[in-house]
Amino acid sequence: MIRRQLINFQNRSVDVRVGFNAFSELSRMFASVVGKPKRAMVVWNSAVSDCFGEIVEHALVDAGFAVSQLSLEVSPAGATLADADAVFGALSTNGITCDDLIVVVGDASMCSVVAWCANQWCGRTECALLPTTFDAMLTAATTMEPLVASATNALPAIALRPEPGLVVCNLDLVREANPEDLKLGYAVLVGTMLSSSKSRWNQFSERIPEIALVNAVQWPQTARKDVLMATNPSARHALDFGKTGERALRACLGDAAAHVPAYQLLSEGMRFEARLAHDACDFDIDYVFEVDDCLEDFGIEELAFDLEPTAFIEEFRRQQFARSNRTMLPLPAALGAIRLNAVDDDVLERHAQAYLASRKELL
Question: Whole-prediction pTM value?
Fold first, then answer.
């Protein structure tokens, strides 16, 4: 059974389909995205096209589209404007207009860059996303991974809300995946559910690890949409919880960060910032430990490393100021209430020293 979920953003809705064997109904889904099928361009990498090329292409042809393809290899570090330029060039070459369809099959970075291009092309061209990783299934409908402007400016800062016409999450890909490849999705899931309501968090945390895959993908869609549409501007930053700590750790670890899975850096950022929240905005210490427990239940263990507190604090503040003029972080004051909060220097210093000492002990 394939469940349908509509995510409403003001005058636009994102049609999310979630289920096992979801790709079996692609033809009907593709036909519903545009008024009259004519042309479609598919973007994927060579590995993905080998796995799903025949399924996706046949579905588009059956729906009435003339199909063109672009093979795009996006770096694991993230997509760049050069990748976007390659997509724009292919759209022009293949004569894609605002009445046509752009389909992308791939991970979060691939979905992000193509959805961004679709939003720009001819004022907006409909886009269908077929995410192939668990983390992409959780995020592709609501947020994109920022693009890097250039090699000389490595700050990922180019982003907008993707708002694709269709997102198809085939849960067979999750069930068959290597457990290690699911952990980034689990880290994203914990952070997203923390931004939801207290009742939803309790329902989520009590069912780990037995939570059904369909619920694991559908629940975050609503929670993430609610954050993005919040009337309180401060609340709209909730999905960035843990990311300042993640970026600071990545920078401080240097070359060693290349050998650390992305899910561990993100989970460490959340663990550290949850502890800051206990002092900065009275986040209940029991919930701080619940966040730790949820991550551990998903098999995400604490990361062992040795960093100097002064260097970490300087990098942490630098990462803040790279994106904002304010020394404020999105921190949970309560379950479902992640807001921007000021963190005094003495609070940051005290928690950084204790946190880094605990990680050094793990060595």
Answer: 0.95
